[in-house]
Each structure stands twice: as C-alpha cells, then as structure tokens.
Amino acid sequence: MSKSKTDTQEATGEKTGLLTRLWHGLTSRSRTLRDRRRQNWLADAIETLYSETGEASGVALARRILDRYAALPPEGKLEFLQLLATRFAADPQRLDGAIRAYFADPHPAMIRQVHEASEARRLELLRRLNFAPSGTKSLLHMREDLIDRLREHPELGEVDADFEHLFRSWFNRGFLQMKPIDWHTPAVVLEQIIRYEAVHEISGWGDLRRRLDPPDRKCFAFFHPTLADDPLIFVEVALTHDLPDAIAPLLADGRVPINPRAARTAVFYSISNCQRGLRGVSFGNFLIKQVAAELKRDFPQLRTFVTLSPIPGFIGWLKRARKDDPLLPEITRPDWHLDPILEQQLKPALQDRIAEYLLEAKTESSRPVDPVARFHLGNGASIEMIRWLGDPSPKGMQNAGGFMVNYLYDLDNVEANHEAHVKHGTIFASPRVRAMRLKPAKKEQ
C-alpha cells in the first residue's frame, strides 16, 4: 500500500472519529438541555397544579406532570424530590401567624388553622397528583425512587414521612378487598404472584400450579381498587394433617394432595409484600386473621393455624453479637449440615443460640430483632416450635443456619397476645421452645 493511500486512510479515520465525537457531544448536550427544560417545566407545573382551582384542568396537568417525572433521568428525579423537600415544605411564617392567632383567640376554628398551617404544601400537591388516571400507581413508583435515595440524602426523610402518612390513609383496611388466588385467576395477576414471591422463589408456571391448583393448597391476596390487577400482599397456605417441620415437603414436585376436609392444620408458609412503595404500611396482620377466619368457615374441622417461617436475621445477629462464638467457623461453611456427626454435636448449642435470638434479642426500641418474629409476635402469634434444618437450601443456611419456626395463631388468644406484646413486650412461646435455652453450668464451690 502506498504511503499516500495510507495517509489518506488515516486522515479519513481521524475525521470520522472527530465527527463521531462531535455528534456524541451534540446529542449529549441536546439530551441535557431537553432534560433541563423538562425539569424547569416540572418546577413551574407543580406550582400551577398546587394553585389550580379547576378540577378537570388539574387532572390533565397532574397526568402530564407524572409522565414527565417518569421520563426524567435519575439525577432529574432526585432534583424533583429535593424540590418537594424544600419549596413545598410547610411555611414557617404562616405557621407562626396561626399559632399567634390561636393564643390570641383559642377556639376550635383556630386549632384547625394551626393544623393546616403546619402541613407541608407537598401533601396537598401529592393529593392533587393522585387525581390523575393511574395516579396512585405513579406515586407508588415515585416513593420507590425516594426510598432508593434516602440513605445518601437523609434530607428527603420528611418527604418520605409525608408519603407514608398519605398511603396509610389511601390504603386503609376499609378500602382493601381480599380475593382468593387459584389456577383460574387471570394470567396478569398470576404473573405478579410469580414476580413478587419473596420467601420461596417460584421457579415457573409448573411450580406455581403446584402451589395453587391442588385442593389442599390455598392463596389469598389483598387488592386496592386503584390497582385492580396488582396485589398488595399475598399469603400461600397449605392444609395439612400436622404441624410441618420443613419447607421442602410442602413444595415438593410429585407430592400427593390430601383431602382438605381431612386436614387439621392450616400452614401459612409464605407471605409476600408486593409494593415496595408501601413500606411502613402493614397489611399482613389483617390478611392472616381474615384468611384464618375464612378457612375456619370453609373447613370447620381445622384446629390449628400456624406458620412455617424463615428466620432471616439469625446468622447476621450471631456474627454481630457473638463475634468469637466457636460455632461460627463451623456453621458458616455451606455443607456443615451434611456431616451427621458434626450436626448432632452442634445441635444443642445452636438450638440455645436460636432460642436466645428469638426470645431475648431486642432492638434499641425493645422489639424483637428478627423482622419475621417482629411481624408475627406483633400480630399476636406465639412461638410454637423451632425447626432444626427446616430449610437446608443455600439461602436458608446462609441466613438462618437452616432453622425455621412455627408461629402459632391461637384465634381465641391472638388479640390478648397482641396487646401484651405491644404494651409490655411480652413474647409468648411454648415450653418446648423455652427449654432449648441451655442453663449455664454451675460453678464449683
């Protein structure tokens, strides 16, 4: 190849590279300008929506605002949320004036004015955004974005608190509908069940059918009118003869179903929250109690209502609270439980640790450390039995050393247990569970 031809090719390549860089630079700047215009439009639009008096025009504007927000890049969404935190906070001067007016003339109308003045402007803005078609779902996604940024941007905490305040009202138990889920439920809902299952992963449609289709398997979910095909929370139930001691038999392929009329036990083996944007808004306590009541009505021979629950925080707690525990090197090996001699050697000490964790380990606010225990004990359940190697899956071993637990829902005592736990921190547990705590050896005199 001649030198002149080589030089020409190199020059052409340089020009092509230069043009490519110029093009990328222009498109990048164009995209930045477009995003900036979108953010500027949003800032003006939410001010307009806040002061808008016409309902029809407000609904249309709310939808455009939510669509524009959804199209923003991550940094643009952060700026929008920060705008809610600053420009749409409560007005200190207005609040000060309302308080002064109340002390000058303390009557009920003035109390209402103080309340209205203390409320952040963003609450009314969020209410108006909710008027838009599919507004509730869009706001749930917006709160998911907010939750993702809270750790690095704690100044958004008040915005998050306002979202939770509104969602507690909008998703009040009185608005929720409990529906059974079975194999004939519309596919759009079944796809959500597969997607949202958070405890025992559903491996596909065949696995889902094994959980929904047999007569001794049930599933129930809460729905909200604005999210008709999107469950809020669901619980999977197995009807069995006895209390289960392991999860694998309940989910086994080829399992022979039993006659549900012969079952004596209802097992809640998986409870999954579906909407991350509803963090802090609890439905599980209502769902379990309502499902238990419905099952009792349809199958009056049922005598026992229990869970088969994971213990997700146990190993993490053991590593924090017992850094030098001689058990740790053994149970952090993934296959220790496959050695039957080692398993029996470790069992008494491990049962002691798990009993300590469930019965005694508390947060700074004196609540159970384990999140699943906190949920069920707070609902009024009691710890009926701790199950050794109830879940030897990799996830079960890594999080809980293979342990699972049966929480008992005694329908006659659940409300009294709930009150005692909430007021006094009482943890109800069977004698068998309490007996797992090893007594310290007596010192020789």
Topology, element by element:
Blueprint: H1 3-51, H2 55-70, H3 74-86, H4 92-104, H5 108-118, H6 121-129, H7 135-149, H8 157-170, E1 177-180, H9 187-196, H10 205-212, E2 217-223, E3 233-240, H11 248-251, E4 265-273, H12 284-298, E5 304-307, H13 314-321, H14 328-331, H15 340-359, H16 371-378, E6 382-387, H17 394-400, E7 404-408, H18 414-424, H19 431-434
Parallel strand pairs: 4-5
Antiparallel strand pairs: 1-2, 2-3, 3-4, 6-7
Helix pairs in contact: 1-2, 1-3, 2-7, 4-5, 6-8
Brief summary:
This protein has 445 residues and is an alpha+beta fold. The chain is built from 19 helices and seven strands. α12 links the parallel β4 (265-273) and β5.
N- and C-termini, Cα separation:
100 Å
| Overall number of structural domains | 2
Q: Please, what is the average pLDDT?
A: 89
- Uncertain parts: 441-445
| Number of beta strands | 7
* Overall radius of gyration: 29 Å
Main β-sheet description: 5 strands, mixed
What structural category characterises the helix and strand content? alpha+beta
